[in-house]
Specification:
With 128 residues, the protein is of the alpha+beta class. It contains three helices and seven strands. The protein has a domain of 82 residues. Helix content is 21%, strand content 33%.
């Protein structure tokens, strides 16, 4: 199964981006860099949960608006369309995916695990 097979309604990239990686410090093998090389965004039901993978522009816009609530170490890239964001944090050389409420702070963040655990959490509606 491909890394992105479960993600619904993927929109292919229409333009070539100057920088192919959204998070260049994590390299070409990072799942989200691989996603954004192929797709501009995605949105739809993934089992019990809804997943909206943001565009590059939406990621940049969100970074600026959440700096007070969530420290810079959290990188958000998606939401459930109803009050939760999805992101990741790099800790001890590894990447852990997280969920966080629209209104809250770092103490409200829930660690979901690796890429496959992240997708499974959304499928099960178990990310809040």
């Amino acid at each position: 199964m491909s890394l992105f097979e479960k993600i619904p309604n993927k929109q292919p990239c229409e333009t070539v981006h100057e920088s192919s990686d959204v998070w260049p410090e994590l390299g070409m093998s990072f799942e989200l860099n691989m996603f954004y090389k192929q797709y501009s965004n995605a949105e739809g039901w993934l089992g019990e949960g809804y997943l909206m993978m943001w565009t590059r522009n939406e990621i940049e816009e969100f970074r600026g608006s959440t700096m007070e609530a969530y420290p810079e170490k959290y990188h958000f890239f998606a939401s459930d369309g109803g009050g939760s964001q999805f992101g990741f944090v790099v800790d001890k050389g590894g990447v852990s995916y997280v969920s966080a409420p629209d209104i809250g702070g770092e103490e409200d963040i829930r660690v979901l695990g690796n890429w496959h655990q992240f997708l499974s959490s959304i499928e099960l509606g178990d990310y809040i």
